[in-house]
Structure formats: C-alpha cells, structure tokens
Amino acid sequence: MQFNKIFSAKILIIIIILFSCGCSDSASNYRETKKIVFFDENYKEQKFDICADKQHNKYCLSNEQVLSTIYGSNTSFTQPNLVKINTKGEGRLIYSAAFENHNQLFALFVSGFSKYDNSSSIETCHSCVQQMGIAIYAFDSTKHKWEFFSINPNVGTYGSYGEINLGVDKNTNLSIYPGLNQDYLLTLEMGFTAQGYTSTSISTISVIQALGDKATKDLGTIDTSLINCSGIQNSALDWDSKQFVIFSKENIYPEIHLDIEYKSEPCESEKAKVLRTEKQIYKYSPDQNKYLK
User: Fold this and answer.
1) Residue 64: domain span
2) Is 136 a member of any domain?
3) Tens of pLDDT along 54-85?
4) DSSP assignment of 94-144, as one string?
C-alpha cells in the first residue's frame, strides 16, 4: 500500500441503502451483498447534474440546486460548483450518481466543505480535513419531480490536506448495497501514514430518511490493516484483510466480514510469508447502536 502524502486519506465510501429486501423464504440467511452503483466520471467536468429523463435532458437536479439545498440560504455562488458559506469557508460537490432500487430512481450527491484560514484561503495542512455532506433524492414518477430523501451538510470530517480525496483517479470507490429497512449504512475506509506506520480502517455511519443532524449517526470504526515501515520490528506484525459486506435477515444492518492475514516480515516485504489467518465478523448491536466484533 502506498500513499502519495503523509496523513493523506484514502477513502472508500460505501453507502448501503437498506430498503425492503423482498427476499423469498427460500433465500439463504447469509449471502454477499451485490453492488448496484459504482463511481461515474462526472467529477472530471465538475458537472454533477442528474436527470430523471436523461435522453431528453428533463427533470434534472443541477449543481446549484443541490448545493443550495445542502448548505441553505447562507450561500453565494462564485462558480457553478462552488459556494461560499458566509465568511467561514466554501463548499462544492465532489460526487454524484443515479441508481434504481425497487423500480424507483434515486440521486446521490456528496459535497465537501473547506474552512478558510486567517487569510481567507482554504486550510491545506497535513491534518486539515473537509466536512462531508450528503443529499439523497427520490424521483416521484407520478408527479415528475424529485423529493428529498435524506440531507445532512455535516456527516463528519474526513480527509487531509484540505480535501476528502474522493474520486476515481484517487483510487477510491463508492458502492450502494441493498439491505432490510428504509435506512442507510455509510462506510468510509481511510488510510493514514505516520512515523513509518500505515493503517486503514472503516468508519460506519447510519443514515436515515431525515433532514439535518438527525439524518446520520456514527456506529463505530473497524481496523482493516497495519503496515510497519518504521524500521523497528516489534510485536505489531504486518497484517492485511479482505472485506465483505454480508446480508443477513437476522440483522438490521449488513455484517462486515474480514479475512485477515498476518505476515512474517514488515513493510510489505517480498520475503513475507503468511504466519496465520483469522476471520473477524462485525455485527450491528441495536442495544449499543454500534458495530461490535
């Protein structure tokens, strides 16, 4: 694993839409969940418009419309995809995708808000983060209009050097998975390098049908790898994992499975052998409202 910048965040965002499963009784209780949405390349044009009737360019959601919805009335557009929020900073869309679930069309938008420093410039230090926002719309085919499903301008702060690092050319992914209820599970895989150690983890966040702060809830973090390139060999063995999102009719949210391999040599050495393997399963606990191993 390589990172271009120290403390740079490699983010894998998986938003899991938990709608009614519609599974037959004969279906297995456990199966790997199938992806229904992947990154598109709208970001290259900085144009994120989504149209319900793409062929005729009708019933469209524009950059300006979505950003005004996310950040409210205290905004002023300086570019089609750039708004200033009072004197505090600026926000822009960084991703959009359209997808269908149970024959209904949805539109997902992800935004990033960056704070200004004392000179009214964007903060770009190693540990400077972006505030991530989301907006999800559902298209009413009878009324021929988009309706709000879930909107929150402040899901949390992520990234480094003043950006979330979300985009196809930055080796990140966004996937949507079906689940059980009308809730979402949003997961972010982030990697950090410091003092010769590189680690990755998955942050889990629930998203419900609501507007504002109540729309999201932090459900905990899951470690997924640790690479030791510090030059100091110790008991912190290198380990890596493959992650799987598993549907279960017994749980509100999908399970997250890790297949872990512990290595004999540090720093991803070509001489490294697999010393042992381990299976970890993380499930959502309704009592504690978070993911537990």
Assistant:
1) 12-225
2) yes
3) 777 789 888 888 998 998 866 788 777 888 88
4) EEEEEEEETTEEEEEEEEEEEEB-TTSSB--STT--EEEEEEEEEEETTTT
